[in-house]
Amino acid sequence: MNTATDTASPLEVLSFRLGNEEYGLSIQKVQELRGYDTVTHIANAPDFIKGVVNLRGTIVPIVDMRIRFNLGAPTYDQFTVVVILNIGGRVIGMVVDSVSDVITLAPEQIRPAPDMQGAMESACIVGIGTIDSRMLILIDIDKLMASPEMGLVAEEAF
């Protein structure tokens, strides 16, 4: 995902909610959207790995971002969405509270991420998108999924 300093063209992002915040990630990483369904649990997996599903013959790990970001106990209802991502050739499912829409951000609508020393995932936040009174926290999903805490994608895969 580009930051405000190197973005020359509009950026299309999928906006989604986790708790009270709205996030955005590059639409180019999204393969499909699915409702939350039963997963097969994996023994000794981290709490945020809900398990795996079989998606048309591909075994896909399912990550609950609410648990990953310590945003309280997740609830799974008709609004819960699994965003199927394709990152570095690996398919990963990401559980979010809801998906809003696809938004096109012009370069002037993207502000640099604030410097938040010690924030858990601050290296994965690439900017803040502004749309009228809304703010989207723009995340670099590649970096997030390759982070040592997640360990789902090898960094050299991009």
TrEMBL record:
<dbReference type="InterPro" id="IPR002545">
    <property type="entry name" value="CheW-lke_dom"/>
</dbReference>
<dbReference type="GO" id="GO:0007165">
    <property type="term" value="P:signal transduction"/>
</dbReference>
<dbReference type="GO" id="GO:0005829">
    <property type="term" value="C:cytosol"/>
</dbReference>
<dbReference type="GO" id="GO:0006935">
    <property type="term" value="P:chemotaxis"/>
</dbReference>
<dbReference type="Pfam" id="PF01584">
    <property type="entry name" value="CheW"/>
</dbReference>
<dbReference type="InterPro" id="IPR036061">
    <property type="entry name" value="CheW-like_dom_sf"/>
</dbReference>
<keyword id="KW-0963">Cytoplasm</keyword>
<feature type="domain" description="CheW-like">
    <location>
        <begin position="10"/>
        <end position="150"/>
    </location>
</feature>
<protein>
    <recommendedName>
        <fullName>Chemotaxis protein CheW</fullName>
    </recommendedName>
</protein>
<dbReference type="InterPro" id="IPR039315">
    <property type="entry name" value="CheW"/>
</dbReference>
